[in-house]
Predict the 3D structure of the following.
Amino acid sequence: MKKNTLNWCYAQNVVAAFVPNAEPKNKLDRRLSQAPLQRTIAGMPNRPPRLELVFQKYDPPLYFVTFNTHRRRKLLANRRVHSCLIEFAKLGEQRGIALGRYVIMPDHVHLFVRGGIDLVLMQWTRMLKRSLSKGISAGPPHWQKGFFDHLIRHSESYSEKWEYVRQNPVRAGLVNDPDDWPWQGEITRIEALQ
């Protein structure tokens, strides 16, 4: 670095540390330029590279997904929303995305989904929410931001999660027997890897 005078601001010194000979061309060009490290971070994939090894072991991956309504409003446990979920799942099968077991509760949904390594779960969930919104008669907003997901690693974990999901309507006092809850089912039979 040739210049290191008081008229350089601290930010320019930081840039100069990352980019040798990074001198401003004029007084207006004294803003902090993007350092190479920042460019690398901005271009990172959705998953850290080491996770590719994990996903290869569970290819195709099986996810347990849960998402909630906005402010936990009771909007979902009805025939129209259920039909929208089934229709969305059937369309997904054509693209290699299998929606397995699911339970629609009044204010949230639990489901199991399997897709290829290229499945972008965030995008798929956003599209599912949009589809389910068509069956909700109340005005928006319908959904809490985000969702919860868990990679199912073996059949024991799958069984445990399903039993938890299946008992949800009983724990909520909506039915005495989980088989009596009408807003549940299985679109595609999914088996977890051993």
